[in-house]
Every structure is written in C-alpha cells, then in structure tokens.
C-alpha cells in the first residue's frame, strides 16, 4: 500500500509498504479520508511536537476515518463494513487516565502519525477501543474533521462553559479556529474571530462569526470592548500559539472570565498579576477530547446540522502529498484532506 512519511526539512515521501496485520484486539481499516493538521508541520519541518527525536519514522496522519475490513480474534463490538473515525491517542487501556477515557493523558500513550503508524495510508490497524462509530449520514471527510479539529474545539468550548449567555474571542482562524466558530455558535455563544489574514476573516464571516477583526489593527481592542458592552469577553480561545495573541486574549477578558490555550507553542510570557490574579481569570490548556465526549460531539453536529465539509477547502489524492503539505504550509488551504 502507499503511505506518507515526513522525514523533516520539508520533505515528503510516498513509500510502498506492507498492509498491516491487525492484532487480536485490533481492526484493519480501509482509510477513506485523512486530514492534515497544523501540528503535522512540526514533522514536516523536523521538530515534532509529539515524540521529539523519536518521531518521523511513522506513517503520518492522526485524523483518519474509514471502513472496517478485518477484525482481530478478540474484537467484539465492530465488524467488517462498519464506518468509523479514529481516536488519535493509543493508551495502555488500564491506567486511571485510560479508564477515564483520556487516552491522550496516559503516561505511556502513543500518537497516531507521530509515534505510531497513522492514517495517511490506504490501510490502518488500530485497537478496537480507539474506534468512533459515525452516523450513516456522515461523510468520511466530515468524520475525519469531527475528531481533532471539531472535537478538540468543542471540548474546549464546553470546558469554558459557553452558552447563549456568553461571548468568546477566538484567535487564529486556521482549521482549528474555524472549527471553534462552529462549535461556539452551536452552543449559543456570540463569537469574535481574529486573524491577520483577510481571507480567513472572510471565511469566518461565512461560518457565522458575529464580529471579525484583524488583531494587529490598532483599533481591535476597542472593537472587542464595544462588542462586549465595555465589560470584556466571557471567554477566550487561542488557536494560534502566538504570544501576542495569547496576551491579547487574556487582556480581552472580563473579570472571572475563562481562557483556553489550544494552539501549540513551546514558551510564552504573560503578566499573571494583571491578567490573571486581579481579574480572577481561569486559564486552562485544552488538548484533544476525552473519548467519552464523542457521542455528544456527534449529537451536536447532527442536531445543529453542522456542515464540517465546509472546512475542507482542498482535497488531495495520496500521490499529491508533496503538493498538499506545501500548500498547507503556505496557508493556501484551510483543512486539507487526503481522500482515498
């Protein structure tokens, strides 16, 4: 089968490898769709955010969806023909975090596409417990987007307590931030969307943002204050990982507001006394979602008729992987998806 590897230095390799054989508790999937994520660019550059120097030797792709074609002898709940998305974190299955459904917090976890073979390939073998059943009405492209992109931001919005009584600012309108707009609007919140790229702001308007702003504009802070009636925002989500955006997000909050940092960054500098302590702000890191949340995520998508395929602005065959990663790196796509 064909599979995509990222050895670093902006190189993309399409290799011919053997179709994996599922273990006793695993299933073999025929991959139908697999998304590119901004974190994949850390592999593309050669400075992996997961796995460090150990990354780069695996088939890439941590957002796949597909159909079950074979099951191991111990698999009980899935059968050939079942349509599924895949939870990216493979945990030990028995520690306290795994038993909570937080496989991504397992001390010995492995990540699809980084430290375990992922979904940018024609077939994928994963444990049965990592399968996420999808509705018959959901496309494979939408299913792939429903996990890391939409699921992560939905979980962040829920942690922040978004509702019809709240307002939220979302910094960074790549695929994650765009998914955040859809999630926040589904929960009833009023949304300010911020990005310096005009095309992304226009896309945010189309997705239903109540106000779109260029955060580098000198009047942006005043516009947020006016939008919030001078009180400040109820919540803020940074999807950019940019230090200036993180600080602006904290500055925008009303007293007792809540913020979530979602965008990856290795370090930042904030002003705790002014931004956190004196306003009694709650700041959390929010990364992925617990597997038990997926049923609610799917129900929200169905109930609100959220069209996740709108986020997939570009689709590629696996043989076009080099072009796909280059265009994604150049920010000429929103969600880029390999379609098999």
From TrEMBL:
Signal peptide: none annotated. Keywords: Metal-binding, Oxidoreductase, Zinc. The keyword Mitochondrion does not apply. It holds the Pfam family ADH_zinc_N. One of its GO terms (molecular function) is zinc ion binding. Residues 8-338 form the Enoyl reductase (ER) domain. SMART domains: PKS_ER (SM00829). Belongs to the zinc-containing alcohol dehydrogenase family. This is Alcohol dehydrogenase, propanol-preferring. It comes from Kaistia soli DSM 19436.
